Amino acid sequence: MECFECKGEATIKYQWPWGEVSGACDEHLTLVQTRAGQLGCALVFLPLGAVAGDEAPDTPSRAEQVNWKEAYNELYDRLLKTEQELERMREAATTVSKAEEQIQSAARSRNKGPRQ
Ligand SMILES: [Zn+2]
């Protein structure tokens, strides 16, 4: 299975709520999670398995189920951290744009000064 983004070797397979199944490498998994977060939907993570058995629905063992759950929890944690990071960036962007406004209004009031 290849990564949906870079076409490299996928390390994880996931399914969207509408049934679309894709693969992602470690690097682009964050991208998938971010998209899922933006769409407000939960992804189902599937085992990569052998390429030949990719389409065959086989019953997962108990150990595999636990692994998925752990992987899911780990990914969910990463998603939350990404969202927090995004929120910090939004706050920083707001601070910057407020500062820009102040600079611009200061520049405007200087232009309206006694020299004109
Ligand atoms: Zn990739």
Helix content: 55-70%
Overall structural domain count: 1
Identify the overall geometry.
Answer: elongated
Largest beta sheet: what is the strand line-up? 2-1-3
Give a short account of the largest sheet.
3 strands, antiparallel
Percent of sequence in beta strands: 5-15%
For the record, give the distance between the C-alpha atoms at the N and C termini, rounded to a whole number: 69 Å
- C-alpha-based Rg, rounded: 23 Å
Number of helices: 2
| Protein structure class | mainly alpha
Report mean pLDDT, rounded to a whole number.
Answer: 85
Which hetero ligands occur in this complex? zinc ion
The strand count comes to 3
What key phrases describe this protein's structure?
116 residues, mainly alpha, 2 helices, 3 strands, 55% helix, elongated, binds zinc ion
Give a description of the structure.
This protein is mostly helical and 116 residues long. It has one domain (12-111). Helices cover 55% and strands 9% of the residues. It has two helices and three strands; from the N terminus they run ββαβα. It has helices at residues 26-39, 62-111; strands at 12-15, 21-24, 44-46. Strands 2-1-3 form a three-stranded antiparallel β-sheet. Strand 1 (12-15) and strand 2 (21-24) form a beta hairpin. Helix 1 (26-39) crosses helix 2 (62-111). The protein is elongated, with a radius of gyration of 23 Å. The termini are far apart. 9% of the residues are buried. The model has no long low-confidence stretch (mean pLDDT 85). Bound molecules: zinc ion.
